[in-house]
# Entry
Amino acid sequence: MRPLFLAMLAGLAATPAAAAVLPATVAALAPASGTLVLPLSKAGDLAAVGASLDPAARDAVARALAAAAFDYKARSSLSLRGIGPYDRLLVIGLGATAPTAVDLRTLGGIAAREAGKDKAVALVATQLPAGAAADVALGYRLGSYSFDVYKKPERPVTRAPLTVVGGGDPDAAAALADAVVFARDLVAEPANIVYPESFVDRTRAAFAGVAGVRIEVLDVAAMEKLGMGAILSVGKGSVHPPRLLVVEYKGAGAPARPIVLPGKGITFDSGGISLKGGNGMWRMKNDMAGAAAVVGSVLALARGRAPVNVVAIAALAENMPDGGASRPGDVVRAMNGKTIEIISTDAEGRLVLADALAYAEKRYDPAAIVDVATLTGAVGGALGNEYAGLFSRHDALAEQLLAAGRATGEELWRLPLHANHLEDIKSDYADIRNSTEGNQPGASHGAAFIGHFADAATPWAHLDIAATALSSEATPTVPKGAVGYGVQLLDRFVRDFKAVN
# Structure
């Protein structure tokens, strides 16, 4: 029965989730029905933004705003019904300063969450900066996202499209929206549906027909031939064998040397023999969010035909305990020949990334390596869920990542990477150990371990997204649950990248 059961699961896993993302179009005039969204920075904006309303309707809106003492601050909103031909008028504050791209995405997200699902939504963008339509539509799409593929709806759910009034191209960021949704879906899926092989299948399906892309998958035999003892050690206890998924994209006019993005892809982390406690273990289906982010970012860049050279490496394994699993105290050899003493089998993410970085160094001549991982709980203790942790030996690279975080709202905070952190994880029995014991700076130690497998001359950074991959509550552009964190950040970083000496 077991082979048949696994075959049935494989069929289900290969079917991509159908998460809802709302369409967007552009029009010169607002339709006279559904919901009309009026973004205002001050009371005087109403005449221009509400030009499609007749004078009596505009007066009614002005009186309602005055009666509500509407403050026009960013994210403030006021919903009005029974005015003019619309089911609803939704006023959203812009604040006193010119809106940034993040502000515009937030505006679109508020419209998606507040305007309802059953009727068309039009947002007046005539007073917004040039190019605002793309960011507003991106926010609207992300704000409309829901992962409900396993729920049985009481009635069919219809989704309201968005019309951006006033010009622009709302589809300019459609590839980025689709890529964030791709990453969210992967992170949200349970581990009996997404595991190393099915992660690969979904990636192949997502990239089907996309120009300039090459996908390579290393199975156990191929990794054994290359000497990838680190990632292989993590997957030994699972019925789902590990995979190293490599997605290359090179656009027209791209530089010769690629940016390489390795991602931690632990599709479920039980802790292995160093078993985690049962409380909250279900969240460990999300331990592949780094791999989802790096593959998702390449998907956005490739579908958007960006003139970049980028490689995602998803180091995929399931960390489970059984009689064949690795033990604390075992010594394994990574692809580059360095030996690792396993202190804790629950420090497995850095093991799979060790081989991913060694592969990146040997296979490519990278312009930079930026790895992404839900690596440590310690990073959340330091930063909460407002920032992901950034570690780097290269200031110029770190500054570019920080700038990309500010531009997209997926912000980073740089944390220390000291020579003593690497000294702390030296082993008496191997070249390095994967953990320490006791109360130690775990996020820095994890970063130091991973950085040990990048050449000192290679511009390298590590992003610890353990506290930002999941959201405990919804925001305008992020649902409760899977965030898809890192896709927007890496898309911006790769597009803006300047070579680091």
Observations:
- The chain has two domains: 24-165, 174-496.
